[in-house]
Amino acid sequence: MDDLLLIEPVVQRFVGRRKSVFAEAYDPENDDDDEGATAIFPKTDEQRARLTESVKNILLFRSLDKEQMNQVLDAMFEKKVVLDEYIIRQGDDGDNFYVIESGVYKAFVNEKHIHTYNNSGSFGELALLYNMPRAASIQADSEGFLWAMDRQTFRRILLKSAFKKRKMYEKLLDSVPMLKALQNYERMNLADALISKSFQKGERIIQQGEVADGMYFIEDGKISIQISQDGGEVEISQLGTGQYFGELALVTHRPRAASAYALENCKVAFLAKDSFIRILGSLLDIMKNNIGQYDEQFQSMLLRDSNC
Ligand code: 1OR
Ligand code: 1OR
Fold it and tell me: Poorest-confidence range of 7-21, 76-90, 144-158?
């Protein structure tokens, strides 16, 4: 019973829908849990190659520089996993962060299956980032190999950069209506994946007809969407802060349907195609619905123009 009382508030924080977990009073700058020397685990070339491959797509590592990345690679150690083994138990203190090299792992909150990791990804970051008990249990559904990093090293290398990024995108992600449908945990992963880009007034961000590499959320500034017509380009819409563009080609698997220009100096957050598929997959229906409205908007635009 005592255990349950301990676990509930934690789970609530990360599984609740609309409550922001970014707005933590917790300040990593005032946390001295990140002191101490980093353990180094020597690796063969073959091990290092496997590890490098496993961490390639870990979103939390995206903001690390080369030196920090090397520290991460040095500090990780291999862990063999047997079928049905519990790697993490909900409510425990956090010891390690794990990156999956191989194997299938299931996540449970209060015994309810909430997620399956299939031979890729990572888990165990929440308890270490927020200094809280484990929010979920993770059990192996096959044999496998994990790469682990101890709590001190994780916090020393990753805490500040991860926090900075999650905080930075808090306002933006809160301002995009479509993203309200994401769970808090998914929104945090999205923050890890975003990359800020700036464009000067007049600069082209997307060119009609090109292959898509990702989509954009507007942090600040105005964007003009234009389509080619009679050898020139005509504006079909303008977008501002909190709106997004460049999702259409990713959803339809077709070339860019329009071009996008910065109408003033703009700041946008870019979400690469691979992260889009992983994180926003659950929003595909909402996006398709919004895309359906492009046609209606266009038709009413034509009608308006012909009435002028
Ligand atoms: P941790 O250190 O709390 C358990 O240990 C880990 O399970 C946790 O870090 C995450 O890495 C991982 N909500 C919370 N934690 C999750 C979730 C999750 N999925 C995986 N973990 N949700 C699933 C969202 C698809 C929300 C549950 C409703
Ligand atoms: P994309 O990946 O095709 C161009 O790259 C982006 O412009 C597109 O995703 C949308 O995000 C955005 N038709 C097509 N794309 C549009 C439209 C649009 N509006 C914004 N985009 N129409 C606008 C109607 C007002 C219909 C025109 C035929």
Answer: 7-21
Q: Which ligand is nearest to the CA of 206?
A: 2
Can you tell me which atom of ligand 2 is nearest the CA of 258? 4
Ligand 1 proximal residues by C-beta, below 6 Å: 14-15, 88, 94, 107, 109, 114-115, 123-127, 134-136, 138, 183, 185-186
**100 is a domain residue:** yes
Residues 148, 241 share a domain: no
Largest CA distance in the chain: 74
Residue 16 lies in a domain: no
Higher pLDDT, 285 or 124: 124
The average pLDDT across 19-48 equals: 68
| 181 and 223 belong to one structural domain | yes
Look up residue 38 and give its two tokens: 């980093």
Q: For residue 10, tell me if it sits in a domain.
A: no
Count structural domains, the chain: 2
Closest ligand to the CA of 123: 1
Helix (H) or strand (E) holding 261, with range, is strand 259-262
Do 118 and 42 fall into the same domain? yes
- Per DSSP (E only), the strands in 72-208 are 77-81, 86-88, 96-102, 104-109, 112-118, 122-123, 137-140, 144-150, 195-199, 204-206
Query: Ligand 2 centre from 208 Cα, in Å?
Result: 10
The residue nearest atom 12 of ligand 1, judged by CA position, is: 123
Instruction: CATH number of the domain at 62, please.
Output: 2.60.120.10
- Token pair listed for 281: 């997959």
Q: Which of the residue ranges 81-85, 138-142, 162-166, 206-210 would you say has the lowest mean pLDDT? A: 162-166
- 53 alpha carbon – ligand 2 mean position (Å): 36
